[in-house]
């Protein structure tokens, strides 16, 4: 049997409003992905959970934070701990920041209105590679 | 209407239904089921027969009269329109002050400043804590000491503008001192604190910061809304309007009981209870929701709590657009959605309104967006005629039927929350709050399958190139990191320049007061005069009372929040 894809879904403690976060968690689980809810975490805490839980992806959800700074910190913390886990970002992220995040190595950035199917299939596709 | 007339209507209705059925054989209706946004099934038309059981005087009545279904003030909006209260905050306190003044110049009449020490967000450390890196000042104003509160409200008339800021007693203490330094009397200060959640975070009655604040305001600040019911933020998580209505009332009910347990009599604090709700796109359901809210609240206050002061029976509401209804796609369309929200809120007779900005699904709201939201409100107020007549939709068969239906459905949820010990208790929360996830997901599935059309998202879609050429919002470019550095410097300066011996004394005084669990407001008001920081106060509180009083303490409820069971934003 194929191993289930595991994903950590995380957001910053200062970031409220969680409709998208909730929808995504339920939707991805329904599509066979094991979702670990990190909840409100600092980048360092997210890195730690991701490693402990041995996830295949980190889903970083942003509303009001600075995705560049937060993802940069997350990447750095992962690197310090010797981990290389692909990051998917989503939420309210400005066009200019989307470009920058991709340059930094984020595999995809999903904005509001994205279908859950497209997120799930991206992960499944990426996972098989 | 007499029975004979009703019989006639019922007969005619049967005939109408048969005719309608025949015509539907030729041209069917577009959907197999019709329902409100909360999934309440609705009929194709409503008649006097659907509202025959209603007793006008006891259930609907007149504006400004019990049970307040038609509004809390006798003259509706004629004496005063709703407050235009756009949410605003960015940068440091002095920057936020400039923004506030700009909005006043454009016709803002009250404030919802997203500015504070953020104790309510389990994050009340000082700005130099790494927690705030990458977050603070981008769309909020993080404050640390009295000096920031002085900057934030500088030059703003605090007797004229109703202020809603600060979630925790620390913020109120700093606000009061800043105002008194400018010569205001705390008895005339008007505004609101939002601290309902504290009831859950601190289950203990004695020493509960929320109850301390309510008690203090009852005596010292008669125009301050210390008891604030927040149903809005969890509606954002996905709840339906019915669930939001039920939660607002149930939380208020349980909160009132907790306050009364301390021996504070109902009419001492209930006149200053007010609430915060969302307004979504289903106009009729939203109007019915607020009408039901006022009636249910008034009855509960009178019958259950024995309130006698008429002001205790009136539920005043601040309302804001339901954020998730705004789309990132074709963002200018959100101006139309904001107009629906303004119409629904004003037709419902609310006291205060914030319309979300059209660009907020893309970025921190721009100034253009904020002004357009103000203009939306101003156009509806001055040009639509809505302010002429109180509760203009009252008496509509549909709206009266739906008001009753919302009440009935909400009551079932309230009963269940009560059965589980009350809405502020963990047991009730753990049953109720996961439902927002279910509702949000159900809605998303309807969008995916196009059962629910969201213009520009799953229908009438434009490709990105068209979208960008026709709908380009102004993306706010704001150097929040510079603001962060500025605030850290400001905090350093305050710490250097204040009399640190006095701060140490204040800490000792606070420690004793926290230990004894006397009302924490008066000692805190004394303490903040020394420019002690919010983070320092929190540390003393935790030393005196334990980590569960800390914003990121290790109590189990915090753990529950981390697990996603709770979100109090």
Description:
The complex is a heterodimer of chains A (129) and B (569). Chain A is built from 5 helices and 5 strands, in the order E-H-E-H-E-H-E-H-E-H. Chain A is of the alpha/beta class and 129 residues long. Chain A has a single domain, classed as Cobalamin-binding domain (Rossmann fold, 3-Layer(aba) Sandwich), CATH 3.40.50.280. A 5-stranded parallel β-sheet of chain A has the order 2-1-3-4-5, sandwiched between helices. Chain A starts with 5 loop residues before the first strand and ends with a helix. The mean pLDDT of chain A is 90. With 569 residues, chain B is of the alpha/beta class. Chain B has a domain at 54-80 and 232-240 and 269-423: TIM Barrel, CATH 3.20.20. Helices cover 49% and strands 7% of the residues of chain B. Chain B contains 23 helices and 12 strands. Chain B has helices at residues 3-26, 56-60, 93-105, 146-152, 169-181, 198-201, 209-220, 232-236, 241-261, 266-269, 283-304, 310-313, 333-347, 367-383, 397-419, 426-432, 434-448, 464-470, 480-497, 500-516, 521-528, 534-545, 556-562; strands at residues 83-84, 87-88, 110-113, 115-116, 141-142, 162-164, 191-192, 224-225, 227-230, 273-279, 316-321, 352-354. In chain B, the strands form 3 sheets. Chain B has a 5-stranded parallel β-sheet. A 5-stranded parallel β-sheet of chain B has the order 2-3-6-7-8. The longest helix of chain B has 24 residues, at 3-26. Classes of the chains: A alpha/beta (129), B alpha/beta (569). The A-B interface holds A 12-23, 25-27, 37, 39-43, 64-66, 69-70, 73, 92, 94-96, 111-113, 115-117 and B 118, 121-123, 130-136, 138-140, 233, 236-238, 323-324, 327-329, 360-364, 436-438, 440-441, 444, 448, 454, 457, 475, 480-481, 552, 561-564, 567, 569.
């Amino acid at each position: 049997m194929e191993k289930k894809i595991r994903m950590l879904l995380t957001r910053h403690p200062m970031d409220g409003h969680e409709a998208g976060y909730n929808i995504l968690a339920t939707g991805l689980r329904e599509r066979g992905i094991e979702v670990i809810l990190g909840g409100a975490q600092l980048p360092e805490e997210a890195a730690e959970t991701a490693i402990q839980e041995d996830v295949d992806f980190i889903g970083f959800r942003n509303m009001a934070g600075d995705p560049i700074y937060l993802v940069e910190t997350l990447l750095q913390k992962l690197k310090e701990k010797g981990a290389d886990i692909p990051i998917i970002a989503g939420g309210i992220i400005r066009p200019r920041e989307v470009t920058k995040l991709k340059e930094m190595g984020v595999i995809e950035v999903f904005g509001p209105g994205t279908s859950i199917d497209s997120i799930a299939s991206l992960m499944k596709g990426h996972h098989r590679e | 209407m007499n029975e004979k007339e009703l019989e006639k209507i019922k007969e005619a209705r049967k005939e109408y239904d048969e005719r309608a059925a025949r015509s539907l054989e030729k041209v069917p209706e577009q959907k197999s089921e019709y329902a409100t946004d909360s999934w309440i099934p609705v009929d194709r038309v409503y008649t006097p027969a659907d509202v025959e059981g209603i007793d006008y005087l006891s259930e609907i009545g007149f504006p400004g009269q019990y049970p307040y279904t038609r509004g809390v003030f006798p003259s509706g909006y004629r004496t005063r329109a709703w407050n235009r209260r756009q949410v605003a905050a960015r940068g440091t306190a002095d920057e936020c002050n400039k923004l506030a003044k700009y909005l006043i110049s454009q016709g803002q009449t009250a404030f919802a400043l997203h500015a504070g020490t953020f104790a309510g967000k389990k994050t009340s450390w000082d700005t130099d804590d790494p927690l705030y890196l990458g977050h603070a000042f981008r769309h909020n104003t993080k404050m640390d000491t009295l000096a920031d509160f002085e900057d934030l409200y500088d030059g703003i008339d605090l007797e004229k503008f109703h202020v809603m800021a600060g979630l925790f007693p620390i913020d109120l203490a700093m606000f009061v001192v800043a105002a008194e330094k400018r010569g205001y009397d705390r008895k005339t200060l008007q505004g609101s604190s939002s601290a309902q959640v504290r009831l859950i975070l601190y289950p203990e009655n004695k020493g509960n910061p929320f109850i301390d604040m309510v008690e203090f305001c009852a005596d010292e600040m008669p125009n301050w809304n210390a008891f604030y019911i927040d149903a809005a933020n969890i509606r954002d998580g996905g709840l339906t309007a019915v669930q939001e209505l039920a939660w607002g009332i149930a939380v208020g009910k349980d909160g009132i009981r907790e306050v009364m347990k301390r021996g504070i009599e109902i009419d001492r604090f209930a006149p200053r209870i007010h609430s915060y709700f969302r307004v979504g796109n289903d106009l009729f359901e939203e109007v019915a929701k607020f009408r039901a809210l006022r009636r249910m609240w008034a009855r509960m206050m009178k019958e259950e709590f024995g309130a006698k002061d008429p002001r205790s029976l009136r539920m005043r509401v601040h309302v804001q657009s339901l954020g998730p209804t705004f789309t990132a796609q074709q963002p200018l369309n959100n101006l139309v959605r904001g107009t629906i929200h303004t119409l629904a809120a004003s037709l419902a007779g609310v006291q205060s309104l914030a319309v979300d900005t059209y660009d907020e699904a893309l970025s921190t709201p721009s100034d253009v967006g904020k002004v357009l939201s103000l203009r939306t409100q101003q156009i509806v107020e001055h040009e639509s005629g809505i302010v002429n007549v109180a509760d203009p939709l009252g008496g509509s068969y549909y709206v009266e039927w739906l008001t009753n239906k919302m009440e009935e459905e909400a009551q079932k949820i309230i009963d269940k929350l009560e059965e589980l010990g009350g809405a502020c208790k963990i047991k009730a929360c753990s049953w109720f709050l996961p439902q927002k996830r279910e509702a949000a997901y159900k809605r998303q599935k309807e969008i995916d399958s196009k059962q629910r059309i969201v213009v520009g998202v799953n229908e009438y879609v434009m490709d990105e190139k068209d979208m960008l050429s026709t709908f380009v919002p102004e993306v706010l470019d704001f150097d929040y990191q510079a603001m962060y550095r500025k605030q850290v410097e400001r905090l350093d300066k305050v710490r250097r320049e204040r009399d640190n011996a006095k701060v140490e004394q204040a800490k000792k005084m606070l420690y004793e007061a926290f230990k004894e669990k006397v009302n924490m407001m008066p000692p805190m008001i004394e303490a903040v005069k020394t420019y002690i920081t919010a983070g320092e106060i929190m540390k003393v509180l935790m030393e005196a009372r334990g980590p569960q009083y800390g914003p990121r303490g290790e109590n189990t409820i915090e753990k529950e929040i981390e697990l996603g069971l709770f979100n109090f934003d």
